[in-house]
Amino acid sequence: xxxxxxxxxxAVPVALGGIVTYVLPFLAILTILVFVHEMGHFLVARRNGVxxxxxSIGFGPELFGWTDRAKTRWKFSLIxxxxxxxxxxxxxxxxxxxxxxxxxxxxxxxxxxxxxxLGQKAxxxxxxxxxxxxxxxxLLAGLFATVGQPFTPPVVGDVVPDSAAAKAGxxxxxxxxxxxxxxxxxxxxxxxxxxxxxxxPVEVVVERDGREVVLSAVPxxxxxxxxxxxxxxxxxxxxxxxxxxxxxxxxxxxxxxxSRETAYLSVGTLQAVGxxxxxxxxxxxxxxxLRIAQMSGQVAETGIVTVIWFMAxxxxxxxxxxxxxxxxxxxGHLLFYGIEAARGRPLGERAQEYGFRIGLALVFSxxxxxxxxxxxxxxxxxFLRGLVT
Length: 389
Description:
Layout: H1 3-47, E1 52-67, E2 73-87, H2 106-111, H3 118-146, E3 149-151, E4 156-159, H4 164-168, E5 175-179, E6 182-183, H5 187-195, E7 202-208, E8 211-217, E9 220-225, E10 231-236, E11 239-241, E12 245-247, H6 251-278, H7 289-300, H8 304-322, H9 330-343, H10 349-377, H11 380-388
Antiparallel strand pairs: 1-2, 3-12, 4-11, 5-6, 5-7, 7-8, 9-10
Helix pairs in contact: 1-3, 1-7, 3-6, 3-8, 3-9, 6-8
């Protein structure tokens, strides 16, 4: 057996196993989230009288599809890493206008996206990210009404010796009331605040023996490796929780709790991104499609509850990313519309063209960067180097 045939014999079973374990769960989850996002655009566009010409899951050449009675082409495309809705008047999937809108007939202007009022266009663009947030709320509400919301009372179980908590005077049995001015309802609130404030004094209010005690703690800067192998630089207090409970709610309360959880996760994600931008956290935490595929496969093995949580978190992240004010993304379009509202007229075609080019460069650079992070994280380069040496 020569080297290549031996490599083939080794690689094919591994590749097939990888497809079943990682690729299929990843594609299934991504397809659902992309469908939800694009359906948001589609429904609001149709509601505002815009003709939708293409609804695509994926990019590139069409694999299969069908055309409905409204003449919308629904299709699955070759590259399943996203999707788009192309409306009448769009030149491409980024919703750049095609040609001179003044040359359209009255009937065509009536169904053209770019001929709609500014508020209508903004709602159509914002509907995609909003659909992702609503989808996350629905998923979490379903869990909270059936399985229950994980709830940990903010009570200290044990205190690690010589930890930040021990130095601050926190004791077992203390109940956290307030951290850094924020009210505490559960132990997860404590973790969220402490993790984002390494080596910074945090005012801690605890209830001890029926009275409130005000303390000050400086979370220890710690590098943590999670279950997926991701390294994060966070703050640690050095306390353990007293136990975990699951609280089930009626549908209306579950919906309210899910909305709060979605807002909580959104704020936490934005704070983490901000810390990466200012250098307080490592850019190695940024992952791309390869790492998401790995995580998808791992959560798929743990059960449907974990998968639903994972989908909700990914849906929130997809909504947030698309709201970033970068041309090519929904947030970039909303930025242009905001400028148009302030100026009383849209930006010139050249300015918009340069904006889309800059946006394309930023998005492509980010894709390359996170993919590089994925390859390093998954030790692909070490594997290839081992084959050569």
